[in-house]
Amino acid sequence: MTGIIDVIGNTPLLEIKLSKRGGAKVFAKAEFLNPGGSIKDRAAKAMLLDGIKSGALTKEKTIIDATSGNTGVAYAMIGAVLGYKVVLYIPANASSERKAVLLRYGAKIVETDPLASSDGAFLRAKEEAESNPDKYFYPNQYHNPQNPLAHYNGTGAEIWRQTRGRVTHFIAVSGTCGTFCGTAKRLKELNPKITAVNVQPDSPLHGIEGVKRLENTLKSGFYDETLVDQFTEVGTEDAYATTRRLAIEAGIYAGVSSGANVFAALRLAETLTKGETVVTTLNDGGFRYGSDSFWSER
């Protein structure tokens, strides 16, 4: 029999045809089809199962971590399945939809200063976990090697298989950097000529939820800049506009970081030649941003 955790990963690869210009083809992994609704299901599963295997996560302990939303949802979902309590530190300005999902899975939420963003939530969760080590299991998604390893073993290998080894460019935003680093590392081992492009907001003050501008934030312990061949910047309005286009023109109801990824991927593809293949990720679904005002903007 198959359980909900067993269907995490192996998401389909969709061709994105929003651009009318020539150049490379663009594909995106439909990570919103994971059971918890985002790409973060992969890392959460790997970190929690590793905790159980090592004996660090026992039935007496509560799972605690910081999140901007999606990893927290994955923790809460898996915690519900496996019978663990979950406490999550989350910026107060995270979308109401994400908070509602967390509560419905039975997690406890501790809201943190929105001006301190996800870094502030990280520091608060870390302090609480280190003050009560016997009470909590602290996966620490920003420093746990199982985070990028989930994408090394999963996302990167799947992209290689699904493109039949034809992928030439991988491009993605970063939050913890787990997706980017793990996927890029696997793809580069399979073909050192693959170009890895890291997408960042064009300003420290931006509206692309869950995404970091690396020069203005705490970096994860596993971040490896040697994996980055190029950096590219995306503005909030371009991310919003592309998120709307995905829904209206492609029938893909995705979140804002997905819009940023696709905008950057399409822009990159237009500079490339026919026969090259750009792959990115659709990190989560639009349902978690339903109350955001950008949907009505034109």
Observed structural traits:
Rossmann fold, 8 helices, four-stranded parallel β-sheet, alpha/beta, 298 residues, globular, 2 domains, six-stranded mixed β-sheet
The beta-strand count equals 10
- Helix proportion: 25-40%
Report the structural category.
Answer: alpha/beta
Could you describe the largest sheet, including whether it forms a barrel?
A: 6 strands, mixed
Number of domains: 2
Poorly predicted parts:
none
Quote the beta fraction. 15-25%
Q: Architecture of the largest domain in CATH?
A: 3-Layer(aba) Sandwich
- The average pLDDT is 94
* CATH class category of the largest domain: Alpha Beta
Give the topology string: H per helix, E per strand.
Answer: EEHEHEHEHEHEHEEHHE
Spatial extent as radius of gyration: 18 Å
Write the layout of secondary structure elements.
Layout: E1 13-16, E2 25-30, H1 40-54, E3 62-66, H2 70-82, E4 86-91, H3 96-104, E5 108-112, H4 117-131, E6 136-137, H5 146-162, E7 169-173, H6 178-190, E8 195-201, E9 230-234, H7 236-250, H8 256-269, E10 277-282
Parallel strand pairs: 2-10, 3-4, 3-6, 4-5, 7-8, 7-10, 8-9
Antiparallel strand pairs: 1-2
Helix pairs in contact: 1-2, 1-5, 5-6, 7-8
